[in-house]
Design brief:
Length: 118
């Protein structure tokens, strides 16, 4: 990775990008996570050949559980697992922070679960 001029975002190689497994999955289940320090949900997502994985996500500002179930989202499935209080997170749910809350990265049209972003 090399830094760009004038404090801009550093550039990465194609090989760097290929290391990140950004994968489509369908949200199966969402539960409140009252033990979390900040307001969050527990999500279970079907990533097809990558299996069902769970995570904690601070997306309660813009979504109710029923808004998320059945939606296809984008997750990073090759980070190491992370312990969040009593819960073990197995992937990173991607999204975009706004003043109102995090907007979850979702697909415009359905693709098979487990499809990698290209």
């Amino acid at each position: 990775m090399r830094a760009a001029a004038n404090g801009e975002t550093p550039t990465i190689s194609w090989n760097d990008f290929e290391k990140v497994h950004l994968v489509a999955g369908t949200v199966l289940r969402v539960e409140p996570f009252p033990e979390a320090r900040k307001s969050a949900y527990k999500l279970w997502v079907d990533f097809g050949p990558y299996g069902e994985r769970k995570t904690s996500a601070q997306v309660t500002g813009l979504y109710r559980p029923e808004d998320l179930v059945g939606r296809q989202i984008v997750g990073v499935v090759n980070f190491p697992e992370k312990q969040i209080g009593p819960f073990r997170s197995q992937f990173l749910l991607t999204g975009f922070p706004t003043e109102a809350g995090v907007v979850v990265t979702a697909l415009e049209r359905p693709v098979p679960n487990g499809t990698r972003m290209a």
